[in-house]
Amino acid sequence: MPRDPTQLMAFKWPMALYNELRKWFPLFNLFSFFCAFIIDAPFGRFAPSASDPSTHSIFPLFNMQALQVDGIRSWIFMELISPFTFIYAFLISPLTFYTPDMPSLTSPITLACTLFMIHYANRALISPLRTPSRSKSHLVVVLLAAGFNLANGYLLGSYFSSPMARIYIGGSYAYMRPSFWIGMTLWLVGFIGNIAHDEILLDIRRKAKARKEKDGEEREDAKKKGKEPKKPAEKGEYYGIPQGLLYDYISFPNYFCEWIEWFGFALATSPPPVELSFASPADFIQSLLHNAIIPLCSPKAWSKMIKGNAYGFAPLLTPPWIFFFGEILVMLPRAYRGHKWYKKRFGESYPKNRKAVIPFVL
Ligand SMILES: NC(=O)c1ccc[n+]([C@@H]2O[C@H](COP(=O)([O-])OP(=O)(O)OC[C@H]3O[C@@H](n4cnc5c(N)ncnc54)[C@H](OP(=O)(O)O)[C@@H]3O)[C@@H](O)[C@H]2O)c1
């Protein structure tokens, strides 16, 4: 049904917001990618501890204990933003001038939206509520992650309610496209892999917590009996060397699996972000070089993109691909620095052949 014409002006800002976010969100992620190789985001293993207030020498603000917030609650808060913004944008549908009908239950769009919600039900609620302990987070991290989730949820919700998504995956013909099923399978493999590897870490924590509680009871017991109590364990969160599944090859398989998940999602729900020819391997390489690699290496092309109108920015770069690239840009430096941290912390005991985040490569 067409929207009430008097409402069209009111619908200008959601579309303008979509265009600006589609341009500035990936550019900001790219900027943060370079920063994150120099500055460790102050959460998790890089959260400053009360006993070592000098952890972050570049940004002393990151060491301020007053700005550290509870790790689990802040995680729930920042991750819940994504599904809510997604639903909001889907309902207001910024890219249509008519009120779109809800997709049917059997539509591929419904399937894609359901998978997004399943991921966030786990990421924002199930996983944190099952986490035995999580280091504190700096307020800056919470605000930046909330910003990421606001932008990402809005872009994806707008995309899935747009005419473009309805053309690409709105009808049952999407079910006949091999890329749809390959993408969905990758999503599922990545989703299960992400949870399985997170679970290995949580198990290390559960066991450490149980040990700590037992030690505490034994110390109390020893005190009551007038014996010398055992020394308490080190303060702060416990870190062990994770083993099993892809941990035998990389330090951050949970991240790697998450990338597989969102790569599959983007492959299933959107055309490729650059024009590619699949006529032959040579054509494929040539199109990749001409349409992606050469423009990405050209400062002139970058300057044109940055100065240009938001509406014309990288026309094929749709929100599902922005999400996939965004995840890599945010998590790759974290994995690289985290891998170095593991090697420093565990020294010779850390498996030598283990890479950071891509088996056998990086
Ligand atoms: N980080 C990101 O930017 C980002 C972005 C999108 C999605 N995700 C996803 O969100 C999930 C959590 O991300 P994350 O960055 O917090 O992952 P992470 O650093 O691997 O930590 C996951 C959990 O395990 C604990 N942990 C980590 N290493 C441990 C070890 N060696 N021994 C015992 N416990 C350990 C952490 O506690 P501490 O907090 O105390 O270290 C945390 O509770 C992952 O599935 C990831 O794929 C992360």
Automatic annotation (TrEMBL):
Q: Where is this region: Disordered?
A: 212-235
Give the GO biological process terms: lipid metabolic process
- Return the similarity comment: Belongs to the steroid 5-alpha reductase family.
Residue stretches spanning the membrane: 24-43, 75-97, 109-126, 138-160, 180-202, 310-332
Task: List the source organism.
Answer: Coprinopsis cinerea (strain Okayama-7 / 130 / ATCC MYA-4618 / FGSC 9003)
The name on file for this protein is 3-oxo-5-alpha-steroid 4-dehydrogenase 1
* Taxonomic superkingdom: Eukaryota
Indicate the segments forming the 3-oxo-5-alpha-steroid 4-dehydrogenase C-terminal domain, all copies.
Answer: 137-209, 235-270, 319-362
Q: Please tell me one Gene Ontology term that the record gives under cellular component.
A: membrane
State its location(s). Membrane
Q: Which PANTHER family match?
A: 3-OXO-5-ALPHA-STEROID 4-DEHYDROGENASE, STEROID 5-ALPHA-REDUCTASE DET2
Name the membrane topology term: Multi-pass membrane protein
